[in-house]
Backbone:
């Protein structure tokens, strides 16, 4: 291995770069700076030694510290990879320890900005995105809420990563979905829910920033190609940390071209089967009447015994079972996790918890229907994510109305012994509403005005969900 004595690694050799990077493991960013005497002198000359200086340094990019103080090359906005001779891109990204002891990525991985004007003329293999993403040196550092300064986060892992073949097929398909939407003049309607592993995430200093797109006069939010948070969590636990395989893959055949088509067709093979027949065929004990029986049967059809599918974990796909009545209506609306009143009023829509959840999540609807004898049969499945207009118009109006109600003071009136409030109702919004999701009246959160009130959550209306179901499944 031809190692540059001055640098300590060979800039043309990916393995040499990786081996050198692994010396970072266990170190904090502060130690990396302290080990580089030139960086300390330059840093003190720029900021001095005051507490203000400490804050300013901490606002800097930890990735820049790794580039300049460890690898000793200047940070730049070059279109090429960070180590062009080796074709290696450097990415520094946080992970966290969860309460149950598992590890997860703290955030999505920003890969490269999307230039709407040029990306429409690129194909995947020769694209700027793939040139910067096909071989990445991932430096994972452990985020801890109690750590005061970014410089004191410690580096846990350093490893080269390139998406394996089964992931690459999906990433390439995701890329094509994003680019086709831009070519259709719909860059302003891009959503992370459109795709599985590769996302088009908003990225700008403020939510008001817009950019031109080539085939529409409507300006679009700046976006970047990203590996989704869910995918980065899977990468960490299965590619970076060895021997932690905990999920089962749905697709085991490399010849499968479209993951989504495979899933829909596989479930569709059992369309018309009753729940009783499916339980018998897949050896599921129907006497337990499990609440998630419909989902469990869908997983068994897909060959998954654990209810944890590898591709679903990577892509943040949420499986939802939907039951259509014999009257062709859906009885249940779709609920989401409860929200804390005092936290909700501190949010802005563009970065709201509920808004981001709908933007970033792709759903697999598994549809069952009752026949005239009230016997439940599988109809099939479809992938779905909320349309841009429904989210940014109807859901946004409902969300903003909810925040307004909380800020002005929730009004509660008891009629015939039942509490009624002025949160948005299903009759007021085509798409969504607010409704209780508490175990009982004593299961409460504190309102901004100090009162305790039963927990609430956002719901998608049952009538809206029915609208979204493919006609073939009704």
Residues:
């Amino acid at each position: 291995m031809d190692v540059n004595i001055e640098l300590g690694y060979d800039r043309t050799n990916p393995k040499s770069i990786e081996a050198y990077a692994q010396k970072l493991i266990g170190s904090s960013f502060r130690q990396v700076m302290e080990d580089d005497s030139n960086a300390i002198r330059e840093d003190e000359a720029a900021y001095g030694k005051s507490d203000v200086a400490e804050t300013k340094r901490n606002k800097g990019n930890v990735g820049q510290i790794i580039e300049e103080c460890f690898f000793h090359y200047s940070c730049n906005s070059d279109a090429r990879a960070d180590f062009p001779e080796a074709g290696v891109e450097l990415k520094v990204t946080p992970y966290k320890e969860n309460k149950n002891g598992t590890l997860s990525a703290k955030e999505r991985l920003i890969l490269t900005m999307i230039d709407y004007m040029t990306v429409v003329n690129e194909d995947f293999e020769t694209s700027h995105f793939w040139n910067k993403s096909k071989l990445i040196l991932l430096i994972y550092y452990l985020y801890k809420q109690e750590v005061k300064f970014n410089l004191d986060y410690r580096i846990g892992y350093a490893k080269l990563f390139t998406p394996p073949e089964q992931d690459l097929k999906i990433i390439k398909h995701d890329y094509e979905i994003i680019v086709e939407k831009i070519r259709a003049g719909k860059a302003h309607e891009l959503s992370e829910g459109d795709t599985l592993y590769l996302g088009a995430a908003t990225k700008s200093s403020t939510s008001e920033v817009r950019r031109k797109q080539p085939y529409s006069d409507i300006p679009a939010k700046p976006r970047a190609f990203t590996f989704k948070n869910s995918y980065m969590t899977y990468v960490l636990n299965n590619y970076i940390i060895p021997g932690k395989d905990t999920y089962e893959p749905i697709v085991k055949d490399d010849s499968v071209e479209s993951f989504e088509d495979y899933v829909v067709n596989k479930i569709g093979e059992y369309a018309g089967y009753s729940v009783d027949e499916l339980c018998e065929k897949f050896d599921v004990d129907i006497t337990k009447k499990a609440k998630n029986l419909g989902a469990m049967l869908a997983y068994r059809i897909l060959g998954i015994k654990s209810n944890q599918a590898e591709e679903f974990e990577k892509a943040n796909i949420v499986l939802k079972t939907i039951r259509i009545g014999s009257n062709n209506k859906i009885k249940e609306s779709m609920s989401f996790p409860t929200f804390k009143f005092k936290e909700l009023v501190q949010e802005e829509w563009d970065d709201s918890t509920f808004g981001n959840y709908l933007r970033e999540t792709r759903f697999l609807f598994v549809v069952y229907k009752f026949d005239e004898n009230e016997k439940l049969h599988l109809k099939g499945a479809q992938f779905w994510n909320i349309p841009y207009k429904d989210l940014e118009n109807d859901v946004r109006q409902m969300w903003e109305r909810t925040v307004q109600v909380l800020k002005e003071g929730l009004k509660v009136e008891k009629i015939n012994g039942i509490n009624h409030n002025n949160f948005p109702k299903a009759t007021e919004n085509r798409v969504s509403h607010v409704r209780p999701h508490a175990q009982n009246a004593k299961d409460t959160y504190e309102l901004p005005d100090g009162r305790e009130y039963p927990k609430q959550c956002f719901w998608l209306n049952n009538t809206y969900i029915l609208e979204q179901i493919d006609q073939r499944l009704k």
The longest helix spans residues 388-408. Residues 43-56 have pLDDT under 50 and may be disordered. The chain has 17 helices and 19 strands. The two ends are 63 Å apart (CA to CA).
